[in-house]
Amino acid sequence: MSDLFSFNGAKGAGWSQPDPDMNASEIINTIPSRLRRQSLPKWPRASEPEIVRHYTWLSNRNFGIDNGFYPLGSCTMKHNPRINERIVQLPGMDRIHPLQPEHHVQGLLAIYFEMQEMLAICSGMDQVTLQPAAGAQGEFTAMRCIQEYHRSRGDNHRSKVIVPDSAHGTNPASASMCGYDVIEIPSGADGRLNLEALKAAVGDDTAAMMITNPSTLGIFEHEIAAAADLVHSAGGQMYYDGANFNAIIGKTDPGRMGFDAVHYNLHKTFSQPHGGGGPGSGPIGVKKHLKQFLPTPLAGRRKIADSDPSGVGDGYWYSWDDVGEDSIGKVQQWNGNAGAVVRSWAFYRRYGRELEKMSEHAVLNSNYLRYKIMNPDPQIAEKIHIMPVNGAPADLVMHEFTLSLTPLKELNGVTGKDVAKRLLDYGVMAPTLYFPMIVPECLMIEPTETESKEVLDKFAADFHKILSEDPDIVTTAPHTTDVKRVDEVWAARNLILRHPGGVLE
Amino acid sequence: MPNLGREKEMLAVMGLNSMDDLFSNIPQEIRRNEPLPLPPPQSEEEIWSDAQKLLGANITLEDRPSFLSAGLVRNFVPTAVSMLATRGEFLTSYTPYQPEVSQGMLQAMWEFQTMISELVDLPVANVSMYDASTAAAEAITCAVRVHNKKALQKDVVYVSEFVPPHRLAVIKNYTQGSGIELKALKHLSDGHVDISLVKEAEGCCAVYVEQPNCFGMLDSTLVEIKEILGEETALIVGVDSVSLGLVEAPGSWGADIVVGEGQPFGIGPTAGGPIYGIFACSNKYTRQMPGRIVGLTRDSDGQRAFTLTLSTREQHIRRHRATSNICSNETLIALMGAIHMSLLGPEGLEKLASRVAANTELTKQAISSIEGIELANPMAFNFREFVIKLPYPASKALNYLDEFGVTAGLDLGIWWKSMESCLLIGVDERTSKSDIDALYSGLSSWMQEVSE
């Protein structure tokens, strides 16, 4: 093992810096005597070659889309084009301060404006803000806008937010952080939204409903317009969780479905790399009546005037426009994850008006893979102990689908988790596990549009092999990874959350 | 998209005829039947050319002397940092839900937690928040969850009145839902916290202060606060992370939670994001803290391994009872921070902080020597930032200096109307003698012009 804290070589050997322009005793006098640091942090002392080897070694123990198929449901793990990384290294991006005057950042503002407009068009919303730093923050931001909207109308009694039981965990968590009570409604037997349950939950105290469409089961909520009518007629607002936006661009949009607010995950739909857990970017779009509550500022533009300094050459002058006194203020300190916005802009430019094709291929790949898994060739089928069942009975799915491994568990004790871990041995990432919670022994699979037919065929074949394998091999998987099955309970019980110092046992 | 041109073949396998068949579950009333009103697709070459044109039109912090900081720094990031962090295995991985194939990022984050823990002198750190402001906001909600039961001033949190308005706005958004009442912690006219008023905060859930404050002032009276507050009130301290190479770690003078901007370690100012917030705390807050945490564990063979832990706090398990809604955080930027910190080493950190401290002092001395310009707080010890008072609105000086070719700082009137004649000047490790000279001549000639 390479242990970062085992490096303890020459002082400050790692990285050369120029000397300060004052001597040490003068420098220390700039710090009040009571505040001078007594002992330096115990960071490693390493040279650049040691650090390069350490992190290269770590990277070799990590699995990204670049390593193989990543069918992680609800996460839209698509290929991350490399041009995007090159663009954000440009000094006009990396070396920009968010408080620079507008005439310093016309190019950045132009990209912000274009992204606001594009996202509004794709979602059927009137105004987009790019400030939220991640999807969950987008949800929170939109719910804050909805909250202020109700307050502005004197509707202070609207204290409840309705969420289907198949929703992402961030939905109820975001609503709760705004101070709302969360009402979870059960899905119907087909996994879809249950209008009767919604009717029973909706009332005078409803602030909003939060829902994703297609649902986390990967099926389209065809009664969504009726649901929106129900919520609206009770005075509530409709919030669209855009985690599954990759399925519908150009085919329908949340505006047509009756939503008032929506968030987008640029790190899902628009290929901002997920980076092992972030950064993300979670812009939101709203209908006109919510615009005045958005966080501030927004990118705006007007026709360029003769008196303006030179712009970017498109005939417009771009500006940061204050949203006004009804704005909820700020949710991120500056103007959001600009780097993610610019990467997503580059991604979007590659598709332009053909973004629809992206969704078509995402849905094609998902249905194809589901079909291949559920319909093995007869000579393969006879070797399989027992087939999983679909998480939802629909004939067609959207960009993702769920499988329940309950039959296998009942037959020989092999769980969804075991199959997921065994897939790692076949060189692919495991699907999302045990979510949505309404599907028992659930695997949730999202191939995305960037996987070839061959990759999908291979995954289906490997999946079938696992279903045919000796249960002892599957329940003890993985066998070929850097470490064997990791004990998560031990971690939670012992809570060793930092290096203890000395030699790591 | 590798399956372009193979649609028919794949559809046929499923017994479907057209791509449209795939969308037959969307009711006709809500179908979009017209094309998206967007421009045609572009090639990579065209995108690169447009990106260069647009972003090339920006005036960057490198194009001229720059003294704009205000919580985000024009740093130098070692070349190895982004080369290593953007290796595809890191860049294109998801949150490490499958630890068996994610040991690399998990170990890197555990090491990150360790370096942050060492930096601020508190035992626990998480994998990152979105930025310094959301870290401060969620530190406050975390502290209230821990202390509210026994608090004499229920739901009350005191926040330094010198917290900049954009951060306060974030804090307000994050705290209003749980009914937290924010009260202002007053400062004396010399900038120090009014220690005689800290008693008023006794029995509240938390006190939030910044060291240095948003004017760059180091406040030595802050070390007395914890003793006044006692164990039932959390002391939350926001830091300039680089300053901790010279300034005592808040964990050593009573801080229970330390937050701050991680950006100086790892990434450029990058137009304000992605950056990352630091969040560290003492053990009693661990189970109420927000965000991802990596723990050491072992695998089924008993060998050492790493995994995300304490996930029962989190939204995907606890749903509306979660400690936070945070899911995606800033892991990759924290990784950049970890690489940067490990390249610096302890002495490299001290040197980095020394360079900033030296440049602060040199700039301060030069600028305060200009006739008619005074330091807002002549007795203050400053790190990175300081405030000067001008005879006319700072916006006028900024415009003049902009024409002169210097980005001179922040007009504090943007933050507080009453400070419209104050200019916030910020330096970094790279501020050079010629930068200082340029600011000096620019401000001098502006002073000359306005006094004529």
Structural domain count of chain B = 2
CATH class of the domain at 125-352 in chain A: Alpha Beta
N-to-C terminal Cα separation of chain A, in Å? 10 Å
Query: Strands across the major sheet of chain A, in which order?
Result: 1-7-6-5-4-2-3
Strand content of chain A: 5-15%
Q: Can you give the mean pLDDT of chain A?
A: 96
Gyration radius of chain B, rounded = 25 Å
The share of residues in helices of chain B is: 25-40%
* Number of DSSP strand runs of chain A: 13
Count of alpha and pi helical runs of chain B: 13
Q: Residue share in helices of chain A? A: 25-40%
Q: Indicate the CATH architecture of the largest domain in chain B.
A: 3-Layer(aba) Sandwich
Overall pLDDT confidence of chain B? 97
List the helices and strands of chain B in order: HHHHHEHEHEHEEHEEEEEHHEEEHEEH
Strand fraction of chain B: 5-15%
Shape of chain A: globular
The CATH class of the largest domain in chain B turns out to be: Alpha Beta
Regions of chain B with pLDDT < 50 over 5+ consecutive residues? none
Assign an overall shape of chain B.
globular
Protein traits:
heterodimer, A: 505 residues, alpha/beta, Aspartate Aminotransferase, domain 2, seven-stranded mixed sheet, four-stranded antiparallel sheet, 35% helix, 11% strand, B: 452 residues, Aspartate Aminotransferase, domain 1, 13 helices
